[in-house]
Amino acid sequence: MSGSLPKLRHPVVLAHGLLGFSQLVVAGIELASYFRGIPERLRKSGTEVHTPAVPPAGSIVRRAAALRDAVRAAAGRGKAHVVAHSMGGLDARQMITHMGMDERVLSLTTLGTPHLGSAIADEIVGRVGDRGRRWALGDAASALAGIGDLATAACRAFDDATPDVPGVVYMAVAGAVDPARVHPLLRVPAQHLADTEGPNDGLVTVRSASRWPGAEVWEADHVDMIGWRRALTGARAQSARDVIVRAGWARLVARLAALE
Question: What CATH number belongs to 12-259?
């Protein structure tokens, strides 16, 4: 986010994805935040920002309940903007449509959310199989529930059962990068998706992420979108992709300001 950003009158709630976190704190020292550097830049402009934690590997319904409570607290008697990454976008849609939170949400912007599911989740669920799901306990069972909710069939059923609510503004951002240029950990799934479904961010296709008309497509992979490129690659200098993502966030904030 280069340059100054407009101050938003409504608070912003940043919703994390599967296996995500709000802040990683050890011995009282914050080591990292899920949306890396983004809350700080928004706050610098005077915008109120909330980064709630929800069950990292829970089902959509379980995660949405926690997000609902956080948005209620952030919005008070007013409304909030929700910006959600990956599975967080499905949590937010569940919360808005099925938990009455349209009264507290002015807008929802999803980043790399698999609205139509992810074939990568299909692969994981298929490899685990029914026996693995049946015997999974505790956190493992929770993780399987979360991944299962991202499978193609589950997301398509979710999408059909979760219509948009009038009065809430919905926007989407998808990522598309050559598989050879995504983060190394994403190269195998990125190539698989490119071969079978087309452009993607390493985990989610553009088609699946572009839920609403006018969706933006950033030249960014799944972790670029939330500011993690340099941290994960060890690069010191700002890359062209960093500039693209910063500009994308600046446009996103400008759109939110225009809604107010």
Answer: 3.40.50.1820
